[in-house]
Amino acid sequence: MKTFKPCQGKEYCKDDGVQCLTCGRSLAEIEETRRLIDGLARLALENDYANVDEFTIYVARKTAKIVRHRRAGRPAGD
Hints:
It contains two helices and no strands. With 78 residues, it is mainly alpha-helical. The longest helix has 20 residues, at 27-46.
């Protein structure tokens, strides 16, 4: 398993056309992450959530739970 390293910002990003040489993630992985984050932001805006911090904490918690369950070979419930 590899360790996730977040982007340091576009001013620090250097790539070889395949991966970022700063964080080590592939450009495809970075683009997919950005697409998913943009989708979550769009959902929060479309629903006009006043408590956007609670929404993002919920999404993070549920994502971590699903990953843990799938790694253990169990389906994640609510």
